[in-house]
Design brief:
alpha+beta; globular; single chain; 14 strands; 12 helices; two-stranded antiparallel sheet
């Protein structure tokens, strides 16, 4: 990418900051160029943050970001060189931000925390964010963030994900394929993909129940059947022969069998038919992380080549690498802020830094340690080490700070009131529907 193009994108990002724009942009440059900083106060020590450390929190508290306009800037910049005839791979997933002891944080809820010890319940307290990522062709941490939203206690990850797709897909000219985890394999999400005109390759739980098309009417009295025979991955007797099958070998020379059953649907959406795909791998260790048998659904009406199912879905694991980079390097979850609005503004600044690194992927500015392998492609972490030299050449659109003299301090006689405490919000469990008994 040419440096003039990057400078133009930075100018557009700066124009999306409607309040406290200078401090917000300086904070984004500090995050982009200070790999050794581990907190917000340490970011204020950067040479690219031209203000004092209180301006960090003041910008996140009083700032205002035009999210709709910034989303358009991201889509245009990241997909500018993408051919129109090639599909765009987008990953949709949610990640948690733990705030267990922060009682003054509003709208905290129960969240799932992965990678905890087996003896501990993987549940904590905090916030949850839904992220729409642009995935690379090869699995890596070179991801782009198209949209990032907090999931409130009154929403679900599926609802927020559908809203994100509705906001981003109209901005993309190419065909879009959404890769998602098994939590999104529900009727509502399948219907949304059909309405928005995008394809979806989604992992499926083995025990999920799907149904074949309803049989023709028999001429007997009563309402016609809405669903056909049951299909369930845990019950082989319900599957029957596959409509299509492919057999080959993986990169280790081991046998791989991909089977497909067509024209299936969820009970809540009989009109939205999907294809159920089963991938059996002989080389798998048959563990929870490496299962020997995996199930997927394909939501588009156009068939997907069965030999491409496994390589295509492997692109989704780049989102896991992207989350790790956001949390470990870009301090996404390490910024201790009080209100959800401040965390949302910080999340958009993290997205700005991540996308600028992606735009500079081919710049050749990566700085490697003596023990790092130079034969492998450079990583965002290595490129981030060389960003100070680039930012020094590009400059900043932010205006320099204006000296205001010494602060008057806290007014004499004013009583300090403690911050308000909030309780943890627990979502009620859905009540199962009961069928009426016929008399």
């Amino acid at each position: 990418m040419h440096f003039n193009t990057l400078n133009r994108v930075r100018q557009q990002m700066y124009g999306c900051f409607e309040r406290s724009a200078d401090a917000l942009f300086n904070l984004g440059d500090a995050l982009l160029s200070e790999p050794q900083a581990r907190s917000l106060p340490e970011l204020s020590l950067s040479v690219f943050f031209q203000r004092g450390w209180p301006s960090v929190y003041e910008a996140l508290q009083d700032g205002r970001i035009n999210v709709e306009r910034l989303r358009e800037v991201f889509v245009q910049a990241l997909l500018e060189d993408k051919p129109v005839d090639e599909p765009v791979w987008i990953g949709l997933d949610s990640s948690s931000m733990e705030r267990l002891e922060a009682k003054t944080n509003r709208d905290r809820g129960m969240i799932y925390m992965a990678n905890l010890p087996h003896a501990t319940t993987p549940v904590s307290v905090g916030w949850q964010f839904s992220t729409l990522m642009l995935l690379p062709e090869q699995p890596s941490s070179w991801v782009g963030i198209l949209d990032q939203r907090r999931i409130s206690s009154e929403q679900t990850a599926i609802e927020v994900g559908i809203e994100q797709l509705r906001a981003v897909l109209p901005l993309i000219k190419q065909a879009v394929i959404v890769l998602a985890d098994r939590w999104y394999a529900v009727a509502r999400f399948v219907q949304a993909c059909r309405e928005l005109g995008c394809a979806g390759l989604i992992r499926l739980k083995r025990n999920r129940k799907l149904y074949r098309p309803a049989p023709a009417r028999t001429g007997q009295r009563g309402a016609p059947r809405k669903h056909g025979a049951l299909f369930q991955g845990t019950r082989p007797e319900t599957q029957g022969p596959a409509d299509a099958q492919w057999e080959g070998v993986d990169e280790h020379g081991k046998r791989v069998v991909v089977s497909c059953w067509k024209r299936l649907h969820f009970r809540e959406a009989p009109e939205s038919e999907v294809c159920v795909i089963r991938v059996q791998r002989e080389a798998a260790r048959d563990t929870k992380r490496d299962p020997r048998e995996s199930w997927f659904i394909w939501t588009a009406s156009q068939e997907i080549p069965l030999e491409q199912v496994r390589p295509c879905y492997r692109k989704r694991f780049s989102q896991e690498h992207g989350y790790r980079f956001l949390k470990q390097d870009l301090l996404w979850t390490q910024a201790h802020l009080r209100t959800p609005e401040q965390v949302e503004r910080w999340s958009w600044l993290v997205a700005c830094a991540c996308n600028q690194l992606l735009l500079c992927q081919q710049s050749g500015l990566a700085v490697l340690r003596p023990w790092e392998n130079r034969q492998r492609p450079a990583t965002p972490r290595q490129l981030r080490r060389g960003m100070p030299s680039l930012l020094q050449q590009l400059g900043t659109p932010a205006a320099p700070p204006k000296p205001r003299g010494k602060s008057p301090g806290w007014p004499k006689g004013r009583v300090r009131t403690p911050a308000e405490h909030f309780v943890v919000i627990k979502k009620p469990k859905p009540v199962p529907k009961t069928r009426r008994k016929r008399a």
